[in-house]
Amino acid sequence: MFATHADPVGVGHVASLARPGGNITGLTIIQTDLVAKQLEILIEAVPQAKRIGVLFNPPTLWHRSALQAVETAGEKLGVQLVMVPVRTVEDFEGAFLTMSREHVAGFFVVLSAVDVSHRARLANLALKHRLPGMFGTKENVEAGGLMSYSADFNDMVQRAATYIDKILKGAKPADLPVEQASKYELVINLKTAKAIGLTISEAFLLRADMLIE
Fold first, then answer.
1. Who's near 171: CB < 8 A, 6+ residues apart?
2. Burial of residue 208 (number of CB atoms within 10 Å: 0-12, 13-18, 19+)
3. Can you give the pTM of this predicted structure?
4. Are 30 and 84 in contact (CB under 8 A)?
5. Average pLDDT rounded to a whole number, residues 64-92
6. pLDDT for residue 29
7. Which of 183, 99, 107 is nearest to 145 (CA)?
8. CA of 29: how far to CAs of 33, 166, 174, 184, 207, in Å?
9. Would you say residue 3 has pLDDT above 60?
């Protein structure tokens, strides 16, 4: 049973969303669709950006399919992407130095455990280099990151409880379709925007579900 899977089909955990076909099911954020939307929102916030850094974690299974989706989105948006691998927190400093050398105007973090666990370090480096960033969780923004667009994980966990109840009552996971996230949140840290000298349009701010001041 999973509650917030990024790409259950892509990594082979289920045969399809409609018919899982095995002994596991649950809810997914469909990360391949989400990363494209995240990149689009970042470009809307920083419309002058023509080069965007993409931080990704090579060991994370579903990042390969996510990066393909990001590259496709980048082509449609007309921006050049600079792919920067980050395996551990020790790679953060070098990643930002690479992005500085490449003259990126912003960066996008493909969600992984390392960037969530060390979110304060990541946010501090973004402030140091004055780079606007898009993150995969609200917690990253609360730690000082600029913005995030993500599924409402609390809602997904609550919905997962209904699946557990069905399975305990005898339902087979193979017969329970994988459900997608239905609630998403755009969170913006206004203090961070001011600190890095980024002016965000009023129209964009009105779209936010949460503003951190």
1. none
2. middle
3. 0.85
4. no
5. 95
6. 60
7. 107
8. 8, 21, 19, 10, 20
9. no
Q: Concatenated DSSP letters for the chain?
A: -EEEES-TTTTTSSS-SS---SS--EEE--HHHHHHHHHHHHHHHSTT--EEEEEE-TTSTTHHHHHHHHHHHHHHHT-EEEEEE--SGGGHHHHHHHHHHTT-SEEEE---HHHHHTHHHHHHHHHHTT--EEESSHHHHHTT-SEEEEE-HHHHHHHHHHHHHHHHTT--GGGSPPEEP--EEEEEEHHHHHHTT----HHHHTT-SEEE-
Walk me through the domains of the chain, giving residue ranges and CATH numbers: 33-151+184-212 (3.40.50.2300)
**Rounded mean pLDDT of 182-210?**
95
Of the pLDDT bands very low, low, confident and very high (cuts 50, 70, 90), residue 25 is confident
In this structure, the chain runs to a length of 213
Tokens matching residue 3: 């509650």
Strand-by-strand arrangement of the 179-180 sheet: 2-5, 26-28, 179-180
Contact between 158 and 148 under an 8 Å Cβ cutoff? The reply is: no
200 contacts 193 by C-beta, under 8 angstroms: yes
- Taking 80 as the threshold, does the pLDDT of residue 15 lie above it? no
* Stronger pLDDT, 106 or 15, i.e. the higher one: 106
- Give per-residue pLDDT as tens, 71-80: 999 999 999 9
